[in-house]
Amino acid sequence: MVNNRKLPVGVQDFEKLRTEGCLYVDKTAYIYRLTNGVAPYFLGRPRRFGKSLLFSTLKAYFLGKKELFEGLAIAGLEKDWVEHPVFHLDMNLESYTGLASLESALGSNLRPLEERWGRNCEEKTSPARFAGLIRRACEQTGKKVVVLIDEYDKPLINTMDDPDVHDDIRKALKGFYGVLKSADTYLRFVMLTGVTKFSQVSVFSDLNQLQDISMNEDYAGICGISESELLSVFEPELHALADKTGESYEDTLAEMKKRYDGYHFAKNSEGMYNPFSVLNTFAGMEFRDYWFKTGTPTFLVNLLKREDFDIRNLKGDVTIDARSITDYRPENNDPVPILYQSGYLTIKDYDKEFNEYVLGFPNGEVEYGFLYELLPAFAPHNMTGDFSAGKFVRDLLAGNVDAFMTRLRAFFAGIPYELNDKTERHYQTVFYLVFKLMGQFVEAEQHSATGRADAVVITADTVYVFEFKLSGNATAEDALKQIDDKGYLIPFTAGNRKTVKIGAEFNAAERTLSRWLQA
Prior knowledge:
The chain is an alpha/beta fold. The chain has helices at residues 14-19, 28-35, 51-62, 99-117, 126-141, 154-157, 163-177, 179-182, 202-205, 227-233, 235-245, 249-260, 275-284, 298-306, 336-341, 364-378, 381-384, 389-397, 401-413, 424-438, 476-485, and strands at residues 41-44, 86-90, 145-150, 187-194, 211-212, 225-226, 272-273, 318-321, 346-351, 356-360, 443-445, 455-458, 462-470, 498-507, 512-518. The chain has a five-stranded parallel beta sheet, with helices on both faces. Strands 11-12-13-14-15 form a five-stranded mixed beta sheet, sandwiched between helices. A three-stranded antiparallel beta sheet has the order 8-10-9. α11 (235-245) packs across α12 (249-260). The relative contact order is 0.08.
């Protein structure tokens, strides 16, 4: 199937998207609902999730560009199309290494506005310039001003590994964003987007009426692509992808869902697909980890390691109080809120009685991409540089347990820490990462219904159950006996698969596997 429709890959400008005939998932009903409210808004969403396109759409709406919205939902809702001065500030302009880079970014945003609305030489600071611009634009047009601040938190996120610089930038932003409170009489509409909600920035403490819609069910689908939108807007692309990959339409849709769906932004909301990955999949006509390859913030990996966070819980066993999930406080050193806000975890369940959320990975792209990103932080770089879970899987697919265990022993031997009570979690994490990364190709889990085996790997014809013991405490023989005593194989005996037990000893002095037995 030949499909020449225009995909808006990399297009974040609404006017360009519409005038060039690109496909558009209509979100304008949300725009109408938003713009008929009076409170300032904050929307938190992961990177590359459509926030910039949303703001570009809002900008076109408030500039009264009615012709761009023909055929969209809002065309049948809006009657007035009043033009307002629009201040669209993009904070994604600098790498942010200090106050100088922050001032550079603020200057880059303010100078074009001053060329349009004028500059008062007595306004020396960025907050004073910002306040003056808002007042002048309102006075000159007789219309209240619209302020859209995209990626408001980029300066804060980029400096989280440097507390002193982070604090300096936080204080500077407190003054700049604080202008929005004092200028309220001149403002028609205010909205900020970002990844996370930093509670100590004045926009959240000073703007008491600020409405955080990040977890509002009414706006859960404002960014991203729902399954109904995927099927209605991109049906030709889905068929073309199925033809290219040689899979059925149903299997292609299932693969899309497994890889890119699963983001939940409210407790009762439908899952959303990552728009960046969806569009790039259709553009390239192949499944890849598009969103994840755009980069994972180093501070997230460092934070998890520094806080000795149990990586094994990320699959779906992370709980967080509803009051904490949207509010990141650096002083608490809790990585869970920002893991959720950044899109690495999403809502899996909600406990109404205790007002708690259960979080886990949204989909396969995020799960395996993040695990690969974590591996170098816990294992030596010389071992992870060419790490391939496929090599481990091939050994087991061939039924070669010795080759598998030898490969695992070589991998552990490079870890530069003596195994003891303080480092046991470190070794457990590496072990977990290796087996979970194998799960891309085979079923690999860490527990059975009747107990908790160290690992279970299921191939088409064989079930492998692993139990590891620390030498000096127990032996490989003890490990095999535990598999039998605890009944780890019982859930798998009903099928036609062959079962293989592997008991192994981990030598603390040698920092690797010393011997193993299979039965």
